[in-house]
Amino acid sequence: MELYYTSFKTAAGWIAVLASAKGLLENSFPGISKENALNSLHIAKYNGLFSPSPNRFSDLSRRFNDYFDGKKTAFADRLDISSATPFQRNVWETARMIPYGETRSYQWLAEKIGKPYAARAVGQALGKNPLPVIIPCHRVIGSTGRITGFSGGLDVKRQLLGIEGIVI
Question: Domain count of the chain?
């Protein structure tokens, strides 16, 4: 399998992206350096031939830059989440439906996927999200309206929500 990657600088820091021919596999949180961003990808779990492909991601780079510059941005890219469990895919695909600038609770997401008692499992699936911002798990908050759980840390979650005009 051929895999493609690149990294680019945004206002928030360096982001690295990894994709297959089917779609996006992973992206990093913004890092302090190009190397930091690339090293945060889980490349070891993939078998394939890796090719640097900055041109392949030029539109995605532009949209990430727009996002971190505070512009309303859509990430309707094709994803390759085939290595995820069916439950994870369901959670991630449903989380992608949460509109920019809005939040939903873990409970709402659990109910939306038809598993009303699975709010904690929803949180665990979101914690394994390989495509932060693109799969906007930062838009999922506790049912009391509090910011809870985020693999990038609560400060990063607050920053991402703040970019979208949400102050909690």
Answer: 2
